[in-house]
Amino acid sequence: MPAQNEKLSQFNAIKKSNFRFFGNEEFSARTLGEAFFGFWPPQDIFHLLIGAEGGSELFLGTLYRHLYLEHYETDRLGLSGICRIGKSPRGDLTLVQELNIHRADKRNRGEGRVIFQRQLEACRELGIRRIVMIGRRNRVEWGYYALPRFGFDAFLPQEIRERIPPQLREATTLSELFQAAEGREWWRANGRTMHVPFVYQVDRDQNQF
User: Fold this and answer.
1) pTM higher than 0.70
2) What is the side-by-side order of every strand in the sheet holding 78-87?
3) If 0-12 CB within 10 Å is exposed, 13-18 middle and 19+ buried, where does residue 26 land?
4) CB 29 within 8 Å of CB 60
5) How far apart are CA 69 and CA 127, in angstroms?
6) H/E run at residue 126
7) Least buried of 24, 131, 142, 207, by fewest C-beta within 10 Å?
8) Residue 15: its pLDDT value, please?
9) Which residues, including other chains, have CB under 8 Å from residue 188's CB and lie 6 or more apart?
10) 50-92: pLDDT as tens digits
11) Strand 18-21 and strand 56-63: pairing?
């Protein structure tokens, strides 16, 4: 088992949260986690993976050969995050973030970047190689634009490519579209929720942030 998370010392500002297992799923969760990671991680890592803050509750169990986590912010009594950890068809450990809602007063203060940095550090600690999210656009979510800026990529569906200005139409992925300032500006104004995975390769350049 590796040394007890020396890297996590930089996150001492994160308060301890309540941590519990769903029903009688502790044995199955621990067994699956040890098979994935080679050891059972300290609970701090699970808090980082799901973006938990102080004053929260974290529930862990299993779902279809995945570790399954739910995070609740107790100060507002609301579901804040859902994620799954499993293996891709290629055998890579993958974190799938299905829901991540943060308080409105923090949404425009760079908290998303801070939380993602925490998730990234925890993924590297555990050997998770891919992070998958859905980039949504609505009144409270800007993932469609923020995720590509963080380094996530996604294929552009044909119906979106047909709307792209002719001079940018060679782009087949968001990363290609974002290479040009004009592409970034067009996507910010015209982009929308895409029900395709936004994928981040964890083992890419670690100096991005």
Assistant:
1) yes
2) 18-21, 56-63, 66-73, 78-87, 93-100, 130-133, 198-201
3) middle
4) yes
5) 18
6) helix 111-126
7) 207
8) 41
9) 145
10) 877 656 788 999 999 999 998 877 565 455 788 999 998 888 9
11) parallel
